[in-house]
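Researcher: Can you fold this with 3-methyl-2-oxobutanoic acid in place?
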Amino acid sequence: MCAQLIKKVNVKTLKKIKDSGEKFSVLTAYDYSTAKYLDEAGIDVILIGDSLAMVALGYETTHCVGVEEMRIFTKAVAKGVERALVVTDMPFLSYHTDVASAIQNCGEMIKSGANAVKIEGCSDYILEVMKRLVETGIPVMGHLGFTPQFLNTLGGYKIQGKTQEAADEILKQAKQLEASGVFAIVLEMMPQESAKYITENLSVPTISCGAGKYCDAQVLVSDDVFGKYSDFTPKFARKYGDMKSFILDCAKKFDEDVKSGKFPSENEVF
Ligand code: KIV
């Protein structure tokens, strides 16, 4: 589409969508062409998730990915996107040691083409980092509930916010994030009634990642949606295609054609 006709999604657009009672869509992307197609399909927010540690790089957990890797994937994705809001997930240890290095590392993502960054958790220190980033002109998305970078302290992949008391605690954190200036909050792996309660008591949009239908938006890992990543698929992910079979099929046909001499044909040579 002609660049002048495209209305770029920004952080205020998402608040307007929430206030109008509509929903917005979020998918992860890690490369240029996938990002281009997601943008063309109308996805509103494209997240360079640190899930790329597992799905794109084959690491065990999100802890293993670093700032430089996230910067390279951010550059690739940002080049493919015209309309969607591009958000980079800040990797483990990239914002935890001191405010100055947090601003520096987040700023590198903005310089690489991201429009915003995502940060997990809610300690006094994290709230201070979020405030300072917003003051610097770096929009911040929060992430509460199950936070993968806290996997070891949470004791595994466990559903959060299961009791009223636990939901109240997440709501308290969400309100603190809101006061620090975040523009949206991911709620991961919690009962949908808890996410509903939290969503209804916030003015910023909530984005469900396995937190049910009452949030203002839904996010999934694109490799789950495409049926590409097969090592593990969470219960809350919906598979819309079977890219693994498609890739296997194409690769097998190519292999056969090469070995039988059918590729290349007369039309495929100079
Ligand atoms: O890393 C990621 O992909 C994420 C989302 C799925 C929320 O954090």
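Model: Folded with 3-methyl-2-oxobutanoic acid in place. The chain has a mean pLDDT of 97.
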